[in-house]
Specification:
By secondary structure, the chain is α+β, with helices and mostly antiparallel strands. It has a single domain (about 1-145), classed as Alpha-Beta Complex (Sufe protein. Chain: A), CATH 3.90.1010. Helix content is about 50%, strand content about 20%. The protein has helices at about 1-20, 65-80, 85-100, 125-145, and strands at about 30-40, 45-50, 55-65. It has a three-stranded antiparallel β-sheet with strand order 1-2-3, with helices on one face. β1 (about 30-40) and β2 form a beta hairpin. The radius of gyration is 14 Å and the shape is globular. The termini are far apart. GO terms for molecular function: iron ion binding; iron-sulfur cluster binding. One of its GO terms (biological process) is iron-sulfur cluster assembly. Belongs to the NifU family. InterPro entries: NIF_FeS_clus_asmbl_NifU_N.
Length: about 140
Amino acid sequence: MSSNVNLDTLYRQVIMDHYKNPRNKGSLDDSLTVDMNNPTCGDRIHLTLKVDDGKVTDAKFDGEGCSISMASASMMTQAVKGQDIETALKMSEIFSNMMQGKEYDDSIDLGDIEALQGVSKFPARIKCATLAWKAMEKGVNNKEK
């Protein structure tokens, strides 16, 4: 029982660290731009991605929202930077399955992103956690077309 409490505390600390000290905050020039929002709670994200030769070479975000949406955006930009598009989209699928409480492929290390696992217990917050991921999917899928 206490190990679950410790894990929850650790996960909360990781989420708050990404919220208070976001990684990759800002925007990129000459890049893919995706703006998305979650009208139910007011979260909004401005995501910029550099994609070269089928690889996400850089990712930055700006926006405003709850700690979960902003921490998730910080974690997502860290996770997909340097990944090929196929892997970035696979990570998004894994994350989506994790958020929905479904079985997911754990062959790809998600790093800090696993701290968001607990969000799946709060259906109203899942859209907060997945907003940045949906923006990334939209951006790379539009790039592929």
